[in-house]
Amino acid sequence: MQKKKYIPRVSDVLGLALLLATVLLFLFSGITNLFGMSTWEIFVKFLLGLPVFFAPLFFVVLAYRYLHMSIPVLPKSLGYNESAMLTVSSLGFIVLIQVLYGSLFPSTTPVVGIAETDSVFGFLLLFFTSVVIPAILEELFFRGVILRTLTVYRALLAILISSVVYALMHFSLEAFPLVFFCGFLIGSVYYATGSLVAAVGVNLSAKAVWFLSETVGVYASGQYPLFMRVLVASCVLLLAFGLPFLRKTVRTILADEDDASVLPSSQFWGVPIVLFLIVSVLIQLLGGAL
To answer: What is the DSSP letter of 141?
Structure first.
């Protein structure tokens, strides 16, 4: 009864948090476009980006404490070995799709701005601020808070909505299908394994692959075609490892279809959620126009 009483408020809390995160991220993107890629500028951008994730996160935590609620606990249906295989297989699938999608839409290929003139410290700082920290913060917010909270409705709905939110907050119409797919796959891994570490591992590894790809392109451009062929072959191999666990993963996600305690999706919609969607779509359109 308590869950049904507070669930509209939870939806409103998430909507307000997403609205806050969207506005902050949009402002952050506009401000950081004025910066270059020197070491100190990278560090300043990193510091400016922290409130984008932590402010909405703290807002959700404080709101939950005020409402005397706790985030739902995810079921863990896969064992350690199965979770590991699903994680590496998902990594292969994501990178493979990114390669194929990037061949059709080159502007969607991740670029962090590596240069031959970078110092060792600048190179490591760039890796830390463009790969490690974003992967951790993204999974903590989009999967650890948004997806996990939305499982009070249905697991599949939670994965879908969190993936749409993840894609919208990348502010790119061209990349929207790709980011949505990546979010859906990482969300499925998170729900099936019940481990945020697995989700962070997939996200961080995928970012690291493209960081390595750009590094090869800058420092060993002649070997770049060979690197990409090896990368694609490796992704196909990793993908094959996870196929045996696909059916079990799907069953885990759909297991709550007949669960009477799951709340109807109609209770999810509220004014803050609608406002977030409207603002996000407007930003996509304005971004494309600018």
So the answer is: I
Single-letter residue type at 126: L
Q: Which amino acid belongs to residue 139?
A: E
C-alpha pair distances (Å), 236 with each of 85, 211, 245, 247: 14, 20, 16, 19
**Residue (of 191, 273, 196, 265) closest to 17 by Cα position:** 273
- Spatial distance between the Cα atoms of 159 and 191, rounded to a whole number of angstroms: 8
List of residues 6+ apart from 183 with CB closer than 8 A: 142, 162, 163, 164, 166, 167
Alpha helix stretches (DSSP H) within the chain: 2-32, 39-66, 80-104, 120-127, 133-138, 148-150, 155-168, 176-193, 196-219, 224-242, 246-253, 271-289
Q: Are the beta carbons of 212 and 221 closer than 8 angstroms? A: no
Judged by DSSP in three states, 171 sits in coil
Question: Would you state the pLDDT for residue 80?
Answer: 82
Mean residue pLDDT across the chain: 84
User: 279, exposed or middle or buried, with CB in 10 Å at 0-12, 13-18, 19+?
Assistant: middle
Contact in structure between 192 and 77 (CB atoms under 8 Å): yes
Length of the chain: 290
Question: In this model, does residue 188 exceed pLDDT 60?
Answer: yes
User: Taking 50 as the threshold, does the pLDDT of residue 289 lie above it?
Assistant: no
